[in-house]
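Instructor's aside before we start: the two examples that follow are unrelated to each other. I chose them only because their records fit on one page, so don't look for a connection. First example below.
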Amino acid sequence: MQLGEIVYPVKCCQGMCKSSFGRVFNLIRHLYTYHTGDERHDVGVLDFSCSDANPVTEDGCIDYSGLQPAHVELDRTYLANLRSEGAAMVAGLRASSSVPYSVIPGVVDCVNSMISSTVDYVQSETVKFLRDAGVSSSVVADVDVSLKRQRDTLNEPLQFLSTRYKQDKYFDSHPLAVKPETVILGQRYETRSGVTKLVYDSCQYVSVEATLRSLLVNAQYTSMLLHDRCIPGLISDCWDGLLCKRHPLFGDPSKVGIAIQIFYDGMGTTNPLRGQSSMHNMGVFYFVVKNLPNYANSCFSNVHLMSLCYAADLKTYGYEAVLSKFVAEMQRLSSEGFVGDFPLLGTRTIYVSLLQASCDNLALNGLLGFIESFSADYFCTMCYATQADIQHKFYESDFELRTVEKHSKDIACISSSSRQVHSRGVKFDCILNKIPGFHVTQNFSLDIMHIILEGIIPTELSCIIYYLCNAHREVTLSQISARTHTFWGAVNVEQSNKPPELNPIDKPGHLYPSMKAVQAWALLKYLPLMIGDIVPASDPHWLFLSHLAELVDLLFSPVFTVGMVSYLRELIADHMIMFIDLYGSGEKAVRLKPKHHLLVHLPTVILQSGPLVGMQCLRYELKNSFFKRSSHIMCNFSNVCQTLAYRHQQNSLFSKLSSCSVRDAVIVGRSSHGSVGDYECADVLCSHFGVEKTDDMCFAKRVQRASMTYVVGHHVIVGTDEDLIFGKIEMFVCLPSSNEWFIVVSLMKTVGFNAHYHSYSVEYICPKIFKIISFDALVDHHPVCCYKKVIECKVQYFVRLPYHVVSLH
């Protein structure tokens, strides 16, 4: 008996209702709220059924041998549906990081009891009703016997999932399930209670091949994997970079090659305020499939677990012991591949290899075999920079770059000397170099989350705010705090990213309190809009803030041209020169940090590996929350790695069954239908859809697509002309005979880009000009911030972009 596939969103099929939901519970609540009086409660849920129609008696199923064929078929259908719903419920519970597995059998028992009580009640009430209606006793007796037989059939339908053992056996047998395997790292002797015994240190490894096989079963996933998004002249993905084009596997168009990117990070699993908080610290390795577009890889379901190990074991045995199985698998898959029959591909050989490793700066240096001290010379993984050099050299061409030959010489120097810890920053030869087509000196990957959001932005904002508040006294921290509160009360985007109230800055270079990466980013983006009206345009620190905002916008752009990369190279050099001129001298001088130096390599990284958003660590850092929550819930630290790896793979199974990795579905929480003529945009609707004003259509005020939530009142980028064209969302519409939703926007006039506020100045058009656009036709999928500001007694509207936008349409 196997699980079937469930597909979300779950759709309501009541009349013209177009609502859809991410969970069955939300659908049920919707039905009882809005469709109580309807005759039918149809639900567009695909089957989570069991492929084996024959019940297995030892698993708690019912023996049908005593039933008539018609009854058998009907009972099997109802029982299969009931068991399917129960399996979906249990799978959802096991996929959650907040539910202990020990409580699930109790939930199953409660559901069994509820179903049995309901069936008993229906039986007794039916017999009582027939007797009260004067039906003959013989007929009542026959009905009573039939009902008892049906009751026995439906008695405890979820018995096959009543224990943890049965659940594990049931879900582990699914063909899409990928179980972690234990890899022995070494052995040691340990004494407990006076008894010395041999203990094996191990880590958990999840096969890359098995994971990919389970993913390629999904036709939508395969289609997304194969879709060619390369546009001549644009760099929008890693496949547009020189690294893929020159790779021995990925540069061969005759082969189906899957490029993967790995990530490593250290992770704490216990409360740091309690004792022994570092005892169960772990090292976690993820991988993503770079064939997918960057927006798809930001989904948790597309960030796959590769390995889990104890941080202490990683220090003891090194990366080579933990990664040896992965390297062996990559060597085999890059040369031999694996064969299978896949949707859209047919029977093909799939080749897999490592493209790049992406980590935070400290983890990347440790993984690739470089020194982990950023206060020493030769800290950079791409060049031989020294601390003195980075203070006055601002172009990559000013530094000696690392190459394969130079790296080999550094390794040879370490091997020939037993006292030498490192040679020009190289500590050891990374095991990943054994993978064909990969070398640490050609790992063109740097993480802009840690470099920019957690490094450069807090440092430079502290300098800017310090001098604005103390030296020039243009603004005060209380003004910034008050305007931050007012601003986030007026805008309808990034509500969760509101930065905390700032503490007084005694010395430039440090921003307190510490904040999340997205909070620092939000503070930089919207600070010009918040206080721009009280700072002179000629203030040098304000000009530096505008320069920083322009640099960050460009670095986070999802699309580049070669000209943009050349401009970025000059922009970085100018920015560091401005920083030195403003803050590099005087009593409270601030030196350039190693993260400033890493900026000089970013243009090369873009040309080699594509946009920087494709290798940032934000999605991986957020993925760690699953393991942290699970460790707090399970409260079992005898073998943390094994438990967490198993729970993650159960979550991964549920994600595959519910197609969470495919992110093009539109979820509509509440929809309504009405006559087209009742709306202000009736003429545009009639023209676009070919309907009459007397026809009905479906309307909604709030929809969700992937991780983006769109609400009436949001602003989006709907097109490009000489400038970007913005529109305000008025409603979402859908034809009754279709499932495709469209956005109705009222267009805005773009006045131009205002450099002082680092935003586009826009105006509303009266009377409104409406436009209907699909989600795929949006220039950028993020809603943008439109802020109303009164300047010199005149109301003005400004739109702040999240990053530099390049139209692909």
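Example two begins here.
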Amino acid sequence: MMIEVKNIQKSYGDIHAVKGISFTIKAGECYGLLGPNGAGKSTTINMLSTLFPPDSGEILINGLDVKKSAEEVKKILGVVPQEIALYSNFTAWENMLFWGGLHDIKKNKLHKKAEELLRLVGLSDRKNEKVKGYSGGMKRRINLACALLHSPKILLLDEPTVGVDPQSRNMIFELIEQLNQEGMTVIYTTHYMEEAERLCTRIGIIDSGTIVAQGTLDELKQQSGIKDVIVMQCNQQPDESAIAAKLNLEVKVTDHTIYIQTQNSKKDLTRCVIGCSEAGYEIQHIDIQKANLENVFLKMTGKQLRD
């Protein structure tokens, strides 16, 4: 495993920020921590990045204990914190040279890498402008570029799209996807469902300092019991029990509308349509309500994500 987190806990006075969470991440995975503000996401990232040691438990990164080998761990980590870590009176270029210099990268190599990353984040033409004049999205993109200067094996991103314009957000997504496809291991924290669904191979749902569920989106659906729903409006009131028996699926009927719960709407749609037609019902409209992370989160935690 690239990352092993074993029952870590962290408190600040009477506040128990992280309450014994565990997870593993394979090399090349993109693992998402999904949860509301205050759930413990940033505290977890801070412990992984060696900024704060856990009160108890163990973190192994590439086989190294973060408590015992913090300096070695830092060499393979790229960290994009939630708060933008840039000097506002420096230009983008000066920021990159400063942060790259902390990793003892040789000057020629650093200049070449900085130019490459500036092109990747679409800011080559703005590199000599002071960061204080940048938009929020541009700052986020430079922040990400700075984290990649030493070619880390693992990238930790803590809410990297907060306050970002749509163009910058999409550019950040595309860069993360490219890095992950090239083999970089990524940990991504967010409170946006669509980000986790788009980017992450596996997702840990974190709430009040604990991970309440984790797995792929399909695995989370199974754990929560959430299913897709095929909705079919008919020309007459259908017989609920007869359709349920014919399809061997969970069926509800309300006001000429059939609601069919299924683990795989794509697989079951055709036979549901044929079955209802054979039963003598003329279908006037079909809709599919896909099970998604929002449904899963609500079922697992009893609350909306942005509560």
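The chain is about 35% helix and 30% strand.
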